[in-house]
Amino acid sequence: xxxxxSTRDLSREDAIGLLDVAEDMAAVxxxxxxxxPTLRGKTVVNLFFEDSTRTRISFEAAAKRLSADxxxxxxxxxxxxxxxxxxxxxxxxxxxxxxxxVIRHHASGAPFTLxxxxxxxxxVLNAGDGTHEHPTQALLDAFTMRRRLHGTASRGRDLDGxxxxxxxxxxxxxxxxxxxxxxxxxxxxxxxxxxPTLVPVDVxxxxxxxxxxxxxxxxxxPDVVMMLRIQAERMHGAxxxxxxxxxxxxxxxxxxxxxxPASTMVMHxxxxxxxxxxxxxxxxxxxxxxxxxxxxxxxVRMAALYLLLSGERGEAR
Length: 317
Ligand code: CP
Description:
By secondary structure, the protein is of the alpha/beta class. It folds into two domains: 12-133 and 294-309, 3-Layer(aba) Sandwich (Rossmann fold), CATH 3.40.50; 135-289, Rossmann fold (3-Layer(aba) Sandwich). Helix content is 38%, strand content 14%. It contains eleven helices and nine strands. Helix 4 links the parallel strand 3 (100-105) and strand 4. The chain is globular. Carbamoyl phosphate binds at residues 54-55, 104, 134, 137, 270-271.
C-alpha cells in the first residue's frame, strides 16, 4: 500500500489483511508496554484543515505507539489564514522530514491531489475529505462489527451476509460513502435511510439499497444500525426537515431503540447530536459500540500507518 485515500481502492484481501494487522495492534494495546519500535526514525505529519477530536488524536496516539515522531499541524492559527496554499503548506511540512502525511481537508479530493501531484514524496492517509471519504473510519467500523460478531475468531473473516442500516445525513457524509464501498467489498448488505433532501444525486450508483422510512428499515431486525451526524455546518443555514421533524421521523429515539433486537449493534462515528439523530438511551446502552469504535480506531490507524510506512504486511513486532 502506498497511500490510503479511499475504501473503494481496497480489495477484499487488502481490507481483511489490514483488519488482521489491526488485531495484532489491538493485542499490543492490551499489554503493559503499549509501544512497538516499528516506525522508529519515521515522521508522521498530521495535517488538519478541519476540526477533529477522535481522528486527529487517534492518529497521533497510533503513530506514537509505533515509535514514530509526530508533527501536528492545525490550519487554525497557521499561515493558511494568511492565504498559504495547500501545496506550500504541504511542502513546508515535508521539508521538515515527513514520511507520512495524514490529511483532513474541507475540499473533497485534497488527499488525492496531495498523493498524485508530486508536491511531496510521502505516504498520504485520508483522514476525511469534504463529503467524499473517511476510509479509516469505515475500517474501524468494520473492525468493530467483526469483533462484536466473531470475537476472538475475527481474524481472516469478512462480513458476509451482515445487514447494516445506515441512517441520516447521507448527502454530506464521507463516513457513509466509505462504509458503503468497504461493506460491499466485505460482503455485507447495506440499506441507506435518509430524508429525500439528504440523499446524494449519484446514490443509484452506490452498492446499497435506499429506503426513506426508518421504521420499515428497522422492522427487518438488522445486525447493525449506524446513525450519522446531521452536519449542520455543511448546510449553510436551515436544513429541511427541521430538527424536531428529523428527530421524530429519522432519529433513533427511545421507542425505536426499544423495538430493536438486543443483538442489534448501535453505531455512531461521533461526534453525536444527542436528542437529534440518537437518543441518550441508545447511545449509552450495552448495544452501543460508540466507545469501542474510538478505542478500535487507534488499532486500525496503527495498522494503516504500519502498512504504509514500513512498506510490508505482516505480524506486528
Ligand atoms: N468520527 C470522526 O471523524 O470524528 P472527529 O471529527 O472527531 O475526528
